[in-house]
Amino acid sequence: MGFGHNNVLHKNHFRKDWQRHVRTWFDQPGRKLRRRTARKSRAALLGARPLQLLRPAVRGQTIRYNSKIREGRGFTLAELKEAGVGRKKALGMGVVVDHRRRNLSEEGRDLNVQRLKSYMERLIIFPRKAGKPKKGDSQGDDLKAETSRTQMALVDPYVHEAPRKITNEEREFQAYRTLRDSRAAARHEGKRKARQAKKEEEEANKKK
Q1: Which residues, at least 6 apart from 118, have a Cβ–Cβ distance to it below 8 Å?
Q2: How many helices (H) and strands (E) does the chain have?
Q3: Hey, which family's this protein in (predicted)?
Q4: Of all residues in the chain, what percent carry a pLDDT higher than 90?
Q5: pTM (global) more than 0.70
Q6: Count of alpha carbons within 13 Å of 181, Cβ hemisphere only?
Q7: What would the pLDDT profile of 43-86 be if each residue is shown by its tens digit?
Q8: 173 in helix, strand or coil?
Q9: Where are the domains of the chain?
Q10: Three-state secondary structure readout of 149-161
Q11: N or C: which end of the chain has fewer CB atoms below 10 A?
Q12: Residue 170: in which H helix or E strand, if any?
């Protein structure tokens, strides 16, 4: 690359002690092992509790991502109330609560209420004292049931139709023409109503 104008000529000598500034990653396998053992010890301390907290199913922001379902921050107070779960009780059962979130649609609220109810049906609450179970604690054979620590999967909200043959009526239906006609009808509706009212008024004056 040439130099223009009356600028200083560069004298790049590259004699810096560059080896002192190299970042190595020789401890990667050891870190991997430490993380794995830390996860095992944490899981052992949790006992039979789920490894992850229960979070609601929400839609992504903006028109680009709102067709997908993802995990939200926490359940709203309305969802907890409809599912019959108290706020303080939820915090002790691994359910995250977000008091700032609001429900903007009945479909989203019903989806999370159903998610909460299915979680409560599967939940096993061990009493603190084996001989003195409190209200809401699991009893009898429920305590001996097989437990799973995996998180509840997000339910697909779309109902997929089974494949079928296209009917002749559907084949002959002109979707584009129907849309254009409905748009035109909506656009000229006011003028047509005014014309009809004027016509009826003129006919009424003629009869007089």
Answers
A1: 152
A2: 8, 2
A3: Belongs to the eukaryotic ribosomal protein eL13 family.
A4: 53
A5: no
A6: 5
A7: 888 777 777 899 999 999 999 999 899 999 999 999 999 999 99
A8: coil
A9: 34-144, 168-207
A10: CCCCCCCCCCCCC
A11: N
A12: helix 168-172
